[in-house]
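Same chain as my last thread, 746 residues:
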Amino acid sequence: MSNKANAFYAHSKEGESIERWQRLEVHLKNTACLAGGFADAFGARQWGYVAGLWHDLGKYAEQFQSMLIHKNTIEASEETLPEKINHSSAGGWYAAQKLSKGHARILSFLIMGHHAGLTDFHSEYVGNASLEKRMRGSEEVVSLLKNIPDYILSIEPPKELISGDASFWIRMLYSCLVDADYLDTESFMEEDRSCIRSEKYPELKKLESSFDRYMESLLGYSKKTPVNKIRKDILEQCLKAAEQPPRIFSLTVPTGGGKTLSSMAFALRHAVKYTKNRIIYVIPYTSIIEQTADVFRAIPGFEDAVIEHHSNLRDDGDGKDSLKSRLAAENWDAPIIVTTAVQFFESLYSNRSSRCRKLHNIAGSVVIFDEAQCLPPDYLRPVVFAIKELYLHYGVTPVLCTATQPDLGVRKSFDFEFKEGFESIHEIMEDTINLYDKLKRVDIELHRSWPLPVSWEGLASELVQHEMVLCIVNRRDDCRDLFRLMPEGTIHLSALMCGEHRSRVIWEIKQRLIAGLPTRVISTQLVEAGVDIDFPVVCRALAGLDSIAQAAGRCNREGLLSHNGKTVVFIPSSRVPKGHLAQAASIGQEVITRHTNNPLSPKAIKEFFDQLYWMKGDEGLDRKGILKLLPPDKTLEYAFRTAASLFRLIDEHYLPVIVQYEESMKYIEELRKTPWNARKILRKLQRYVVNLPEKVHHEMQYSGHIAELRGFEGIYVQKTTGIYRKDIGFCQPSEKGFLNPDDLII
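reply #2:
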């Protein structure tokens, strides 16, 4: 028989005596204090404290305690192990009995979801997993109340008011709870990891000093070219604007104007002056994230302060520093985070504890949205809504950084409404139009066949007339078709090459350009935003004006030619990509036709985005109806799980396969021999993954060209040697002209 004097435990350690287990009261108090501290950043300390104190009330159940004891006895076996106890429901149920409806629903969302994730209130999509059904409680929950200390049950309900949108606030509060729970559990179960995590990073003030010294040295050694003089002026304007109070900023600078370092200069000075916690750099493409992180790491003092968080994450070290970076990526507890737009925004709308852990550490940050024109139009309303919430209620200073700035202000008209838009945006540059004129290094030309399409054969015959030329197309198939027609030595670049392969090819391109060697490149658009290469001639398949501007940014980037570089826009003979790309290309063609003299002027860019957003309309800018699932009313009847399942910035269904490239097979063998080290090895293998369309992936499985790795469910590896080539990456056996049947050996 139990009573409140008995010892109850939260966690046990295998092989340790019961005296060394973690007491449940200790875990609840620790989690409460941590969660309350995290939530204090947005005025919700008591909410975080109560959620932490009640999150594991279910562990006071005698069945749970019996399970812990049974698991750690010599006689324990799977057959005799008691059934798992649902310990996450009790705290939410108790809140529903003790508190008002609003308080109860909020705490029930948090507590009942701290393992399984935030669920939907109603059962329409999630059945019995709905919050409404889980809050009804059970006799088992009633019976455990007698074991819980009175001071835990009798705590006063929070009195702090919700700041801003309630659904967003609940997700931020959920982040505080799950991160606190993870951290306290880790400190008991894995002390070594916890010690490494607790080691301090350099403060932003120290990083600012290092950055200023680096920039002084860099500007001193740079050539006194007209472009570098303009870059210095841009830097000075960024430093000046950083002194201004927090607001929503835009940094509109033509491609090649040095936005990366200038935006970091702004962020550091602003963060130090206004006591911001960290700087988060959000980038649209994984293909350039490593390059950007490396730019920052090259600054003395920044080497260990920059954390990358993305799917192609490198894991170059086996030591403590590498583990420290991986731990910091879990909850973004580091001074400088470089991540992708997919990771950032999908986490903000996620319902899963692992993805939400980091959210509370976004509060009180400077967040730079690099290439802001790439914010996904189909999700623009929820994306802009999230940025505005972070600014208004969570102490975030957003910076929209791009060469082609979309108008994201509030719009209300009889045929189009964008009420989630920003009330005001403060531009950092004093004279953007004059800046564009000064930095104009490229002439935009329409192909001589315009407005008719040009054949791949005709285009190839024109490209070979240039020793240094970059041609960017819209589709992977187009890239292959054109590459097939080019002479030997031409370089191919697409997402059908794994991350490690692409990085090496981009490095080779840069070295050839520096050496002045003949360099012809056929690429998809992955080469555009931020990849620091410089060609005298660029050809671009018709696309949206933002994409064409990015392509032009790879042309005469440093302004070293005696004349302007040339970017030629052509209409390809292949089918137009579906969806947003087709819509953007159609509008791009209209705007270019109206502005043939200067199709990339700020006026033309504004026309392009205005027309694009108007054509999509109010519903088209939230294509999956995310905001309707999280309505701004007082019922708190949110569909968190359904919204998370629908909020996918990369909407197409792709599945990964590990390809045979360089060291990948060595890591596969290592994985087979040391499966207990799987997490670390799989992180290394992320660099060797190609994502295939779901249909193609299934076909390749059926034909035996790829197969699931034994013992690792969902991990597929290349089996047929010849289907990954060092020039073009992954090939399907049906591709004519690329595969020799003799190479298809399984």
